[in-house]
Amino acid sequence: MVVLGALAAATLPYLLRSNVPSGLQLPHVDSGTYFSDTQLDRARDYERFLELDWILSQVALVVVLALYAARGERFVRESAAGRIGTGMLLGMIGLALVWLSKLPFGLAQLWWERRHHVSKQSYVDWAFGNWFGLGAEFLFACGVILIVMTLAGLLRDRWWLAGVPALLGVGLLFAFVQPFLLPDLHRLRSPALAADAKRLAREEGLEQIPVRVEEVHKFTTAPNAEAVGLGSSRRVILWDTLLDRRFKRKQVDAVIAHEFGHHRRHHIWKGFLWSVLFAIPVAFAVTEVARRRGGLQDPRAVPVALLVITVASLLLLPLQNTVTRRYEREADWVALQTTRDPAAMRSLMRTLAITSRADPNPPAWSYVLFQDHPTIVQRIALADAWQQSRAAAR
Amino acid sequence: MPIRLTIDDDLQRSRLTVFFRLLLAIPHLVWLSLWGSLAILVAIASWIATLISGRSPDMFHSFIGSYLRYSTHVLAYLFLAANPFPGFTGRPGYPVDLVIEPPRPQNRWVTGFRIVLALPALILSGLLLGGGGSYQGAQTGAGATAAFLGWFVCLARARMPAGFRNLIAYGLAYSAQAGGYLLLLTDRYPNADPVQHLPSESEPPHPVRLTVDDDLRRSRLIVFFRLLLAVPHFVWLLLWGIVVFVVVIANWFATLFAGRSPASLHGFIARYSRYAVHVYAFVFLIANPFPGFTGRPGSYPVDVHFEPPERQNRWLTGFRLFVALPALLLAGALATVLYVVALFSWFVVLSRGRVPLQLRNLGAYCLRYSTQANAYVMLLHDRYPYTGPAVPLAPGPAVAEPDHAA
Q: pTM here?
């Protein structure tokens, strides 16, 4: 707790620093101004189903992992792999159960997305096309268990003193190599957009960060973009669904500027610092609960550790969403300052909401639980606020 | 077993007839195809009669039985499992022969869906024997590969190696049971257990000995995700294998120079080979538990013992890769069998929670052979792998299972 407190005191001022003016008042925006009643009804209908599906899947997940925590010990006898190897087996079985428990809800989600023409994936592709990714997850879990159980064998309950930095090191490494692992990337093919991207990068002081396009149109119609990588591996990734003529050039410019904003404000690094703050109490909780099963050096503790991590992640979700919403808001602000085009930002938000069937103004519970970005209405209001602050400054 | 193979062969072969074996067999192959066409028509009639009366009529049973016996004679001759030119009537008395029991009542459901039910057995038969098999043809069957290699040995030594003959005989026995099942001679499913077909078969002393001490029980959940669970082992096997590759090259130079493999290199390679056996036994469902990552002896139900380093022939060491080619060819054919056996086992285990003894034993045989072949290539010794379908069961109480289990 002392370590956590000291870390929080040292890092929070930096993590909470923002270039969005602190007293900024967002003007009221009526969603009816931008969307028809039909569009709003359709978006609400679409999102409520997905949210219900997600809640049910999480309930099922917790129930399955609770059963596994209670009865998973018996799989110890299915192993001849020694302490750590058996821990790996139990960890992988846990992931397998997670996959199985999510399967029906994932299928329901796919059915719903296909029904609304958001996903183009076939059921067979969805069920069997991602086994490679599942294998990579298994491998990653084995690496984590190897680190944790080795350290727990040496340091017992103080494993986290070395374990948390080691795991974050692995996370950093993964964040660094992630851009190189993304399949089907290519450069911007439109010379005009490529020139815009260069100009925006120059204006944000990020000339060395390239913009790449990821081919996803075979699987989905939903538009998206992301800022990935660390240091020299930093990239801005645009899904090719943003470039299929549903979005105007100025709207895509706003997206690019937003993603550059994440890099400019070091949001990926800040996300890691938040991970440290979150990881320490979770590690503490895992250690406490695992102690009743002989400690984390004992493979029998792995199922219960999985349950604790899952429950802790769910409990921390609203807090995580608060953090990411703050950074998304800041990236929007950076984009507005770079493009100086609030109209493009407003129209981008409108098109984004329509193409991805997002509810522009979701209810409070949905906002707290699910929204890792500000709502569409809030983002339009931010563009209005930026315009007003600029007018006042003149 | 209602259809079983008998062997009365002294392994002696005539070089001249072996050299021209394929040409000499042509009249038999023509006659076999003609008889086979008729046998199919009779089998259809027998299928209808068995569906109605619950039993194959004696006349049909006798006709198809003679055809099956004749085809076994011809294939034994063609694949060098026997020496004399066979007769054209399928009469009993050939050195590799079939004993077929008289007709018995058959389950009508099993009769009705016979073609579908027979498919797995026919696939396995094609892989075990080749040549006339229904899967990939003669080139890839283990028996056909043994016959191809045996042809050269017979020309050189006028004698068929016992291991080759026994492997071919095992393939013939299983294929005969698969054919008999398809053609309604019996409703007993073919048994793939080498121990059942060749009970007297035992492995001659060998410096690489596999042991299987397994109770056939399998965890359904772990079997369902078996390949994914093995991913960390595959990665570790690959990383360790890169080091072993370098060590094997060093071992080759050392053995060529000193006439024996240095104990440290021998131990390192043996450890890796044992680990690989543990992993493959897990992946191919020959054993149940998740293996360790160190290849420690005695840590896994399917284990392998390596004799300490012995003197090795320098000529054999120098040309090891070339000398090992036939063994690697056969190991490749048996690896295909192993893949298919594991696939069949996977489905069975998911429904029954146990792996069938026959499939486990067949898998263990394939694994034993490939382990011996790999150990030969990696210069752990200079004894050639034994080809016969001896199953390396651990001493102790046998695991009982009715032989009609699929």
A: 0.85
